[in-house]
Amino acid sequence: MVLLEAIEKRLLEELNPKVRLVLETGRYLIEGGGKRLRPLLTMLACGMCGGDPEDALPLGVGLEYIHAASLLHDDVVDGAKSRRGRESANLVFGNEVAVLTGDYMYAKALHLFSTYGNMEMIRLVSQAVMDMAEAQVLELSKVGELITEEEYFQIIEGKTAVLFGACVAVGGMAGGCTDKDTLYEIGLRMGRAFQLIDDLLDYVGDSKKTGKPVGNDLKEGKTTYPLLSVIDLLDRKEVEDLLSKLNPREEEIDSLRKKVVTLGGDKKTKERAMEELNVAKGLLSRFPESSYKEEILRIMDFVVLREL
Ligand code: FPP
Ligand code: MG
Q1: Ligand 1 centroid from CA 70, angstroms
Q2: Residue 307: left (phi > 0), alpha (psi -120 to 50), or beta?
Q3: Relative to the alpha carbon of 83, which ligand is closest?
Q4: Cβ of 150: how many Cβ atoms within 10 Å?
Q5: What is the DSSP string of 155-179?
Q6: How far apart are CA 185 and CA 73, in angstroms?
């Protein structure tokens, strides 16, 4: 696909720090893979709104750098050992280098926005990053606790959905659209669906494909939607005890994980993700038909079908 090739090329071209170790660490993460959904959505939204998708390329690249920076930082925070099916950057280069390379990539993104974007875009994107950081702290503060559905949605909205919202809004604005709110909501709903499926994959995914071990969220004491969707059918006290354990046994985790699936937590999560996407599709219908819009619809279907 032409857009994807342009994205891959520009992602490597714009990453040009003077210090070799920053380049190596940044490249390690970028070359580790990723679906490039954020820059794709940015460019497609630009095309859908009547602009030339190429005009949104550096903005999409900036948004992918923000995503990359957040992963570098997240893996340090989580003490993760793997990312995208291989050793995480913090493991290979150390926490300090991973954090600082994340800082570099985040600043590079804002640099790209100040060169190719405008003030409204910078405001939107920096707000998204503030929301991400806040959501990460909220998630961290709730580790070991059984959280409410409201808290869960507050967390996933901040940590994932707002960046998708920013991608669609920035791309559409670059294409000349003034209805920023509708664009943002399309992305936001896609992002919620994306994180719901991500959380579902933690229960039923193939770890070879996702690059992450199954049952990891439970093990880390994190409540996600599959569990919440069936919590009334489970022994609440038992679940709370397991989530609060610092080093739960593998068998205990696996037993709860399997129970959640048997009770239909996987189906309920998929349905909830579909609801979000249906709202997004409804909003998308306000825009004229085009190949770009078709492609956004295909990405929406991919969000739910991936690795399942
Ligand atoms: C992965 O979540 C983490 C995120 C989606 C967001 C992380 C955001 C920050 C660290 C704050 C923003 C910082 C900058 C510099 C932009 P996860 O742990 O649920 O997913 P995983 O299993 O892929 O690690
Ligand atoms: Mg993580």
Answers
A1: 5
A2: left
A3: 1
A4: 8
A5: HHIIIIIHHHHHHHHHHHHHTT---
A6: 26
C-alpha atoms less than 13 angstroms from C-alpha of 232 in its C-beta half-sphere: 2
CA of 75 to the centre of ligand 2 (A): 5
CATH superfamily of 2-299: Farnesyl Diphosphate Synthase (1.10.600.10)
From 87, 136, 198, give the residue whose CB has the most ligand 1 atoms within 8 Å, as the site to mutate: 136
**Single-letter amino acid, residue 254:** D
262's tokens: 């048997």
Q: Which of 81, 159, 162, 223 to mutate to test the pocket of ligand 1 (most atoms within 8 A of CB)?
A: 159
Cα(77) to ligand 2 centroid in Å equals: 8
- Ligand 1 atom with least separation from CA of 222: 19
User: Which residues 6+ apart lie within 8 Å of 111 measured at CB?
Assistant: none
Within 6 A (CB) of ligand 1 lie 66, 69-70, 73-74, 78, 80, 102, 106, 129, 132-133, 136, 159-160, 212
Inter-residue contact 67 to 38 (CB < 8 Å): yes
Q: Give the containing element (helix H, strand E) for 85.
A: none
Is residue 24 exposed (0-12), middle (13-18) or buried (19+ Cβ within 10 Å)?
middle
Over residues 166-222, the pLDDT tens digits come to: 999 999 999 999 899 999 999 999 999 999 999 999 999 777 776 677 899 999 999
**Alpha-carbon distance 57 to 63, whole Å?**
10
What is the value of pTM for the model shown? 0.95
> Each residue of 25-80: pLDDT tens digit?
999 999 998 899 999 999 999 999 999 999 999 999 999 999 999 999 999 998 98
Residue 36, SS3 per DSSP:
coil
